[in-house]
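the two lines:
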Amino acid sequence: MPTGTSLPDPRNTLYVEDAGVIANVQHAGDQFILRLKAPKTAAHAMPGQFMHVQVSADRPMRRPISIMLTDADKGTVDMLVKAVGEGTRELRERKAGESLSIIGPIGRPFDLSDTSRRYVCIGGGVGIPPMIFAADRLAGQADVIVFAGSEVEFPFALRPSRFLLPGVGGNAILGITSLEERGIPSRLASNAGLYGCYEGHVPDLARDYLLALNEKERQRCILLSCGPHPMLHAVARLSRELGIPAQLSLEEYMACGLGGCAGCVVKTIEDGKEYHRRVCVDGPVFSAGILPEFA
Amino acid sequence: MPTKPDLTVQFAGLTLQTPIVLLSGCVGFGKEYTRVEGFSNRDVGAVILKGTTIEPRMGNDPHRVYETPAGMLNAIGLQNPGARHVCGNILPGLPHDETQFWANVSGASLEDYAEVARIFDDSPVTAMEINISCPNVKAGGVHFGNDAAMSARVVAAMRKATDKPLITKLSPNNANIQEIAEACIEAGADGFSVINTLVGMAVDIDSRQPVLGNISGGLSGPAIKPVALWKVHQVRQVAAQYAIPILGQGGITSAKDAIEFAITGSDAIGLGTGLFYDPLLCTKVLDGLSDYLKQHNMASYAELVGSLKTG
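prediction for all of em together
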């Protein structure tokens, strides 16, 4: 198979781990954060990669779930999940002390290699975790800022941000505490009237910020995004409107998760030629410019 | 202490280092699973490469896979880069000293099948599996494999193009699998894969659309295991008379499943959807097979094959 995007392909070793559930914390809107003991995945994961999680031993298809944060010393991996179907509802019931078979870390990560850039991370719902992971890795290495959107209460500790951001004002005062503590500015958006959030869609919040930058600063930005399709469409539009590159993390039903079955493809156009690329290993992160769906 | 049971298998003139065969469409073009820590090609008798056609194919639009009770549907649509690309660019990079690689040949016409067979004939693949469940474009899209005479013509066309072993993959979606098997043997088939997937579909009740981009797809996984065992049993009645081996497959996710297929008459054991449950399934099946053979004082896997007692 020809290989895909311009993004780096780590072709890293994939580990099958019986990951112990350390904690499963329930949040609003059927969301929950699982902390798993998966030392090999924790040691090697890069932002944008995911784990292929076996919800229960009798389910033929694992569920691909983004990695939110790792602690290589403790060997732990955190993931945020929303119970939307049978599999994720089963996953919600897993308790500390149980174990889950996981394969990880899978996929092409975000390209964070250019530290002269400012990374503008735009995440929605269960697409927020890869933004948190990317920001965590970029902290102290490059400029990074996180915009997160949710229509239910955010499953994170929040506090008023101590960073002033151009173009961002009004109600948008809260940031994600863990990011604030690491010196990473963040702001939140919601249409659900949540306190301290920008009222509207998260790409519009990011747009206000980007438009308030001077041209030179704006051109230094790269957009990273993960979330629902309408949100990714808006981010892709923003990328075109402002002439800023965007890397989008996609989702699709997956069977093997290793590139063996070609069950999880997305259409791309590269050098004028059409391809079906596997979301699992040719992605999940793609340059927005090669995805006709978001053109 | 009993010695270690012999797990090598004679299959269509080939010696397989173990009875396990990784099935076409589940393991890409042979490289993907080698990234998994603990996976070894040496645990595998053969790897069947993704279905290959004469020209490159894009395959179907998403969704292509969907979970169903105890199984899954897939409708990939034969996405592949074409036989010449596979032979020129992929096969030279595979570790042929670690295991055997077999081609899986698909076509829209008899000429297509023959041409792909000619291309693979001059390559390191040691055998070719024939996907006869392809629509015949010259006969209004009827699947070749639905009809005994048409199935035989596909086998015969490929037989003329290569001396390599030809393994015909039989569909469970016909009532006359024995008749088709017999016709394929007469046309020169050296072995059978039993079974291909069952055709099915899934519906999204929110959008009221089919889930799969292709509307229909192939059902695999434990849900089809009883069907697969029965079809192996049926094909065995015919194939055994000609000493033609069977690669049994359909929902095998454990050593116990593999043993059931062996008893029913599977000379080799195909793993497909089972790998999606567990990419390290091969070693578990091999360990379980060895334990079973030892417990039952059998010296080899071959001794177990077709040992079904029907009274």
